């Protein structure tokens, strides 16, 4: 009988321990998670203590000194590339390991291993999307090219070794917070993960297109209507290369296939595919002002890339100093080198090229499977690739993807993006990112570039994603190149799904790099790009893609009129909140508004918008009224026609409506085809305003009428967990505004570099150097970023090693 | 005396074991101390409970204070605790305490059998 209490208490103990050792739904094993010696408590860093460290590694060739300043930016002093990138890998892992791995899991379509299938299989769908688009395939091919170059090989091997050194010395209690929360452990890092990360950037910048939506629109609209809804160019555009520039005549031009009129432009079969795509607004601003326009006589270069606002940030500030280079800027945790930044001779930056390098071809399979497809009159063997998804808590899911001469058949009867049923059309994706390439070496070379020639030698390696590379040097050169390997296309090639049964519609040639739009030291004294069209219609090749209108227009207008420019002027320009869309559209809207039809409460909103100063400043209520009214107007004008287009369909761009309003050319679209009455512009404008009142009243009672409160800009943790995010920030800006801060998208880095003898530089990103939510450095820059302020970027020399700005020192020895 | 010694030794041994072993090694510590220091069962339970409660409460509070509450406040919002770091520390301490208490009982009754 003595044994009974023993058994009871033992069983109770063990049961409780087991319950606390297993995940319960999304709750991690609580015993470990809450243990002060093992769990999240171990990630709660002491705010006052930043210890010095001495780290030994046999893989280094010499000593490396790292000085962390009081913003936790590491200044790395190494004696060669290998050691420098080894330590960069170690530092990226130290501060951002979870993020690095998570992003590469996303690129590889492996998120469901960690997050499970997701609500309604959403995560699995995302993963299938990445694999079917050929992300892993593309990374494999790029990795071969990267590893074949001895310089690249040396650097990425070193980086990988540095990351793995950090991972290997992590104990379970030292794991980053998110690993404990999600109950998994880091894998070893590899060169393949670097390649995957590079492809993830390609995805973010070039995977967005509207081919499927445009194809569906084609089934309903006439040619003329389609061109009005989705024009190739804009009247008001101020292209990157100014209008009137003469372009060299190409040796040969692509030829429209004769069958295009019957097989391509007359496509009549709608596609039921809902693509999973990156943000359309992934773009940026950059500009460089020549010495002739600056107060100092030296150039100033500015760049602010616009991406999703996430924490940890995509960017990590770093300075790397070796005998051959001294570079400062932002790096990607996940790859070595500095991506946007400057050195002792020059500065560079990027904006997204936006042109169309991803097209679909319709494939005809033999019978019901996908083993053989029709090409040039014969049945060719597909290369069948079986993708395995090791979904957390579920059996393995297998997905077979057929690879054809065009690329992987992304959509077929088994997959149609976010739709449940498959696609009746088989679409292979031809994406430039599939081509083997080594873009990484561009950044390696830019980091140590000394002049314009070095810059050209660096950017020639870019295949995809094509970028507008801006450049300025202390020797007074400024330049811009839209650089990438572009397909030479005929007009509207790739805007719609193309027949994939033979070579007829394939990309015919590549645009020689020399013929890419570019400019060096123009008479006007500045270069700039803001994702607008690179050139006007005299450029001999078809551009495709989706180009913004307004930011480039406004930036150029301001730069034209600015003289004796200083870095402070550039800060003001980068954070400029004036709304050029409102400038174009609002006067027309006000003119057409029949104020007699407005009741008392609507008149209040009318007063706000008619007296608005056209600035998207945080406190402006007129900005909110305009936005709601404009959205309502777009809906009123386009929705009735678009609703008849088979889904998915695409809204026309906001600038399409604005330009049509300005030149008063909306005619047929104004009429609501669902009513008997024939509407005129003033009817639609007025009813759109009246329809906005409900929403505006609600915003007003919620105290969300001011632009900032309406917009609710936030920096979200990658897992979209609110307490780990910084939400509800007070900011201005918006879409089409130079300060392109939307709700969860905007200037992820702002940089201004003044190329005086001793470089003067400013920068800021909404986040912090540490990816640990338990660190004071997790979100240390967010408030200043929201307020439009900048950090002074400190270019350290080794003589500065006792400077009071240094918070801690790490020494790496072999 | 035994009671106080049990409290202190349970806490100390579980701290040492947790330097090398996972979190449940606190159960081993509580089991062992209760088997070695013979007390009435209720006292064995209570001394292990108090030992871990105080140990984890103080330890977590110290970490929290030197962290300015940054992480605990976030975790207390991720979990349904309304952002209260106090409740988070309390739950932390309670969990360690209950596991220790039950394990101590088990050790005490084993001693009783032998």
What's the layout of helices and strands?
The complex is a heterodimer of chains A (about 800) and B (about 110).
Chain A: H1 3-19, H2 30-34, E1 53-56, E2 64-69, E3 74-77, H3 81-107, H4 111-115, H5 122-132, H6 135-148, H7 150-168, H8 177-182, H9 191-206, H10 211-218, H11 223-229, H12 260-264, E4 283-289, E5 300-308, E6 310-311, E7 316-322, E8 325-331, E9 340-343, E10 346-352, E11 358-363, E12 372-375, E13 378-381, E14 383-389, E15 397-403, E16 409-411, E17 426-431, H13 440-447, H14 452-459, E18 467-473, E19 478-483, E20 487-488, E21 498-499, E22 509-510, E23 518-520, E24 526-529, H15 550-561, H16 567-574, H17 580-591, H18 600-610, H19 621-642, H20 654-663, H21 681-701, H22 707-711, E25 713-717, E26 726-729, E27 745-747, E28 750-754, E29 760-764, H23 782-786, E30 791-792, E31 806-813
Parallel strand pairs in A: 1-31, 3-7, 6-25, 11-21
Antiparallel strand pairs in A: 2-3, 2-31, 4-5, 4-24, 5-27, 5-28, 7-8, 8-9, 9-10, 10-18, 11-17, 12-13, 14-15, 16-17, 18-19, 19-23, 20-22, 25-26, 28-29, 29-30
Helix pairs in contact in A: 3-7, 3-9, 6-9, 13-14, 17-20, 18-19, 19-21
Chain B: H1 2-20, H2 25-36, H3 41-66, H4 70-78, H5 85-113
Helix pairs in contact in B: 1-2, 1-3, 2-3, 2-5, 3-5, 4-5
């Amino acid at each position: 009988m003595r044994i009974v209490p023993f058994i009871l208490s033992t069983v109770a103990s063990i049961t409780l321990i087991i319950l606390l050792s297993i995940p319960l739904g999304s709750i991690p094993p609580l015993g470990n998670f809450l243990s002060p010696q093992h769990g999240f408590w171990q990630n709660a860093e002491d705010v006052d203590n930043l210890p010095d460290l001495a780290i030994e590694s046999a893989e280094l060739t010499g000593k490396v000194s790292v000085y962390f300043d009081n913003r936790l930016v590491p200044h790395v002093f190494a004696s060669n590339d290998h050691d420098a990138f080894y330590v960069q890998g170690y530092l990226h892992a130290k501060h951002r390991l979870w993020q690095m791995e998570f992003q590469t899991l996303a690129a590889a379509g492996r998120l469901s291993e960690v997050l499970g299938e997701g609500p309604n299989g959403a995560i699995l769908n995302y993963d299938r999307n990445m694999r079917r688009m050929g992300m892993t395939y593309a990374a494999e091919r790029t990795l071969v090219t990267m590893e074949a170059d001895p310089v690249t090989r040396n650097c990425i091997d070193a980086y990988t070794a540095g990351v793995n050194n950090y991972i290997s010395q992590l104990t379970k209690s030292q794991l980053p917070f998110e690993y404990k929360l999600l109950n998994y452990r880091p894998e070893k890092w590899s060169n393949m993960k670097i390649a995957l990360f590079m492809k993830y950037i390609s995805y973010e910048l070039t995977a967005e297109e509207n081919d499927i939506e445009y194809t569906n629109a084609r089934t309903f609209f006439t040619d003329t209507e389609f061109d009005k809804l989705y024009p190739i160019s804009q009247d008001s555009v101020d292209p990157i290369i100014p209008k009137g520039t003469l372009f060299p005549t190409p040796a040969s031009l692509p030829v429209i296939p004769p069958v295009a009129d019957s097989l391509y432009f007359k496509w009549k079969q709608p596609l039921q595919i809902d693509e999973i795509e990156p943000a359309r607004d992934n773009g940026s601003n950059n500009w460089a002002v020549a010495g002739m326009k600056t107060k100092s006589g030296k150039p100033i270069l500015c760049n602010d890339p616009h991406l999703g606002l996430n924490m940890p940030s995509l960017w990590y500030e770093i300075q790397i100093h070796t005998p051959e280079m001294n570079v400062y800027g932002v790096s990607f945790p996940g790859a070595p080198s500095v991506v946007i930044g400057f050195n002792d001779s020059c500065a560079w930056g990027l904006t997204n090229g936006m042109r169309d390098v991803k097209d679909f071809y319709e494939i005809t399979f033999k019978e019901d499977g996908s083993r053989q497809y029709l090409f040039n009159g014969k049945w060719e063997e597909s290369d069948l690739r079986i993708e395995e998804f090791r979904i957390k808590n579920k059996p393995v899911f297998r997905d077979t993807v057929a690879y054809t001469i065009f690329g992987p058949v992304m959509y077929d009867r088994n997959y149609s993006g976010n739709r449940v049923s498959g696609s009746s059309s088989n679409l292979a994706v031809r994406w430039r990112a599939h081509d083997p390439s080594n873009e990484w070496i561009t950044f390696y070379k830019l980091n140590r570039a000394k002049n314009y020639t070095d810059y050209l030698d660096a950017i020639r390696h870019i295949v995809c994603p094509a970028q507008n590379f801006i450049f300025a040097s202390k020797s007074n050169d400024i330049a811009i190149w839209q650089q990438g390997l572009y397909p030479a296309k005929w007009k509207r090639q790739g805007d719609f799904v193309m027949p994939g049964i033979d070579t007829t519609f394939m990309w015919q040639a590549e645009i020689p790099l020399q013929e890419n739009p570019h400019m060096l030291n123009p008479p006007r004294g500045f270069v700039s790009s803001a994702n607008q069209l690179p050139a006007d219609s005299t450029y001999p090749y078809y551009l495709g893609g989706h180009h913004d209108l307004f930011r480039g227009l406004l930036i150029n207008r301001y730069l034209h009129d600015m003289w004796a420019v200083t870095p402070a002027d550039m800060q003001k320009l980068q954070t400029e909140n004036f709304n050029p869309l409102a400038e174009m559209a609002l006067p027309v809207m006000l003119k057409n508004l029949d104020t007699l039809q407005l009741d008392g409460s609507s008149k209040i909103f009318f007063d706000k918008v008619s007296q608005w100063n056209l600035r998207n400043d945080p406190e402006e209520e007129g900005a909110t009224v305009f936005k709601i009214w404009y959205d309502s107007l777009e809906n009123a004008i386009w929705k009735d026609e678009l609703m008849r287009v088979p889904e998915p369909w695409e809204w026309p761009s906001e600038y399409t409506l604005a330009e049509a309003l300005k030149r008063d050319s909306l005619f047929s679209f104004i009429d609501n085809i669902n009513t008997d009455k024939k509407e005129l512009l003033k009817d639609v404008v007025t009813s759109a305003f009246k329809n906005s009142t409900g929403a505006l009243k609600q915003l007003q009672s919620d105290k969300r009428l001011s632009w900032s409160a309406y917009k609710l800009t936030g920096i979200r943790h990658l897992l979209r967990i609110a307490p780990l995010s910084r939400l509800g920030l007070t900011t201005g800006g918006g879409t089409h505004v130079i300060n392109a801060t939307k709700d969860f998208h905007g200037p992820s880095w702002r940089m201004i570099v003044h190329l005086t003898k001793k470089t003067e530089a400013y920068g800021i990103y909404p986040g912090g150097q540490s990816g640990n939510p338990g660190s004071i450095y997790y979100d240390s820059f967010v408030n200043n970023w929201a307020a439009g302020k900048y950090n002074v970027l400190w270019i350290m020399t080794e003589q500065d090693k006792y400077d009071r700005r240094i918070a801690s020192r790490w020494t790496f020895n072999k | 005396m035994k009671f106080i010694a049990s409290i202190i030794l349970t806490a100390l041994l579980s701290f040492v074991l947790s330097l090398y072993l996972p979190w449940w090694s606190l159960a081993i510590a509580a089991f062992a101390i209760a088997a070695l220091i013979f007390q009435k069962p209720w006292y064995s339970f209570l001394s292990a409970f108090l030992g871990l409660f105080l140990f984890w409460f103080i330890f977590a509070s110290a970490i929290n204070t030197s962290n300015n509450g940054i992480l605990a406040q976030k975790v207390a919002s991720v979990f349904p605790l309304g952002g209260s770091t106090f409740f988070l520390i309390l739950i932390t301490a309670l969990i360690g305490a209950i596991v220790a208490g039950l394990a101590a009982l088990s050790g005490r009754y084993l001693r009783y059998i032998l």
